[in-house]
Every structure is written in structure tokens, then in C-alpha cells.
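Quick illustration, no need to memorize.
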Amino acid sequence: MSSALALAGVSAVLQFYLSNLYAGLSALFGSAVTVSAKAPDLVQDSFAGGGAECQVNLFLHQVTPNAGWRNEQLPTVDPNGMTRLASPPLALDLHYLLTAYGSEDWQAEALLGFALLMLHENPVLTRHDISHAIAALPINDPSNPLSTPLGAVGLADQIEMLKITPSTVGREEMAWLWTALKADYRPTFPFQVSVVLIEAQHPQIVPLPVLVRNIVAEPELSPFPGISAVTPPFNQPAARLGQSVTVQGHRLATASAVVLTNARRGIQQSLVPTAAGNASLQFTPPLLNAPGELAAGIYDLLAEVTPPSGPTTTNSLPFAIAPSIDTWAPGVIPSGNTQVTVPCSPFLRPGQQVFLIIGTQLVAADPFTTPTNTPSFTYPALQPTNGLVRARLRVDGIESRVVDRTTTPPTFAGPQVQVV
């Protein structure tokens, strides 16, 4: 695949062969022909200032995704399905304007005619053509600092060869282009080069080869361990720290760890199951009352198991840890501009979205830069309530317990306050 210098490499290859084309035609035109790859307004200023009498300019005016390659592959990831290992190549079509400048009658037309015939006779740039042009760059233009780096561009090694096809540009689009370029129109031929495949030049880690293959046949309908449900206690939608959680599935008797991952917060922690059977296991997220404990939020949960076929992991399911308002009995809160401090668990981490809801009045936590279990909330205009109302804490979209499902029928739970 090509490197990020591929766009510059294509222009350099085209410029090289156009320069070779006109090298033997200086006698025909009465002067040497200059081949450039610059913006037309820069060429026009140079030409008007007494520059070359005959000049051909190659200008890359647009780059578009290639329709055939843009969905050819998907990114590859590691076995956990979360870490990207490689991305598909960036497939691009390059759109050029080939413009001829001449100071005498018919010169521009003649210059353009020779260039069009060369492109028509060479619609495909072969690998040899590209390699030859790239290898000659440092000799062709040693003053250009990009000449040497372009030697490793990799254009000749990509899967697709470069194909040149004419483009159809209407009069209105051509007029718009030259107006945007702030240059006077000159005889121009639009064409397209396809396809350039750019790929990041990152080394990939290759695992060691397998020495011995141990294949074990296990005649069961569900040969691989898996989990089907994560059930917090008391049918709550989320578990609190220190509560036992049940994970249902199959072939879990050899589970050695439950892995909780919160990629958003950069948290990954393995917990040892407190009990494990074939159809379920239990674990308890520890309540440490310390900044390093698991944060409230949504996690990916999977189990590490060791069946006879060898260590493996199950599928993952979402699992939520809820915040909890610790013993907090303010009773009465004054209305108006009021600051409220709420003791909670687990510790809140900087960057988490934290809200306090008193009845129906919601406000975000005051900014904090270190883990805290006593966040403060400032209400600019807290309204009085008609009696006691429930207070809830919401952290990263997960709310503290507000319903007690241990009773029949369920009842509301959580601290109550009144705003006067």
C-alpha cells in the first residue's frame, strides 16, 4: 500500500513523464517547455512576470473517495473486539486539471495536444513506469525536499495500478473552478487518476506460530461457555457496591474471574466469583470507600473460564453500577440560591456527569478535579416544594435507588427533603 505521500507521488510521476515528453520538443516550440505542478494563480503570476514562454501545468483540484474500495474491508480488531489493530486502506480518486500556457499563436493548443496524446496512449501507469519515475526524482529535482522521501511512497507496490481516464466537466463547473482559482482561463483538460490506496505505515504485531494443536471434541449443544443475563439483587436495574450479583449462563462452573470494563472511564477490573455453578455464578463488586473503587456507570461484563478445551472468555453483557446516597438527612433545605453537599458512594471521578434531582429540580454538580464522595450542588433558584420529595443522584446516566422492590407492592425509597 501507499503512504500518506501518495498524492504527491502521483503528481510527481505525471510531471516526470510530461517533462520527458516535452524535453525533445524545444526546437518545435522555439524554447524549452516548463512542466509545473502548482496552483494556476501562481503559474499565471510567474508567466505574466516574464517567466517561461511555454508551460504546461498539472493541478490537483479535487480528491474524492473511491466508490469501489470504500466499503471493501472492515477494521480488524483484537480478540476482545475493542482494540483496533488495523484499518482498511484509504481509497481515493484524484481529479486533475492539465493547462497549457503559450506566448505565441497555437502554442497552447500544440502543448495540450502532445500531452493528451501521451495520456491517451498510456491509460495505465504500470509498476515499472511508477518505479522508474520515482527513482529518477532526486536527479530530476534535487532542490525539492520531497524528492527523497517520495522514494519510499510505495505507489508501485499497491494492489491497484493507476488508471487515467478523462473527466467530464461542464462549462458552469469549469467557470466556477477558474473563478475560485482567481486565474484567467487557459486551454484545460480535466482527467482522473484512480485508485490511490493509502495505508498507515504502522508495524503490526504478529503472534508466534502454534506449536501443537489440541483439538477436543465435546458433544454438547452449547460447547462454548456463555452468559445470558446479569441480575442485580432485588430485581434492581443496577447494582450497588457491596451487593451480590448473579450471572446466568451455561458452562460457568470453571469460572475464575469476572471482568468489568468501562472503556469510557478507562476502568478494567477482575473480580473473583464468590460462587460458581454450571448455570450461574455470583460475584460482589467491593465497597472500598476509597478513590480507587469501581465508579458508577455502565460496564461490559464477561467471565473468564477454563473448560477442558482450554482457557477462554464468554460473551459480554452490559452491567450497571448505581450510585448511592449515603446517610443524608438534611430534612429542610432553604429555597433560592442554595448549595447542597451530598455524601455518596462510590467515589465520583473527574469527568463524570453528575446531577442531583430534588423532586423535579435538577442541577449539575459543582466542578471537581479529584475523586470525591461529597460532591456539592449549587441551585441558583431552588423552588419550594409542597411537603417532602425524593432526592436522587444521577451519575453517567445511572440513578441511585428510588424504588424498593423487596416489598409487595414496590414502594419508593431513598432520602426525602423539603424545600421551604
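DSSP finds seven helices and 29 strands in the chain.
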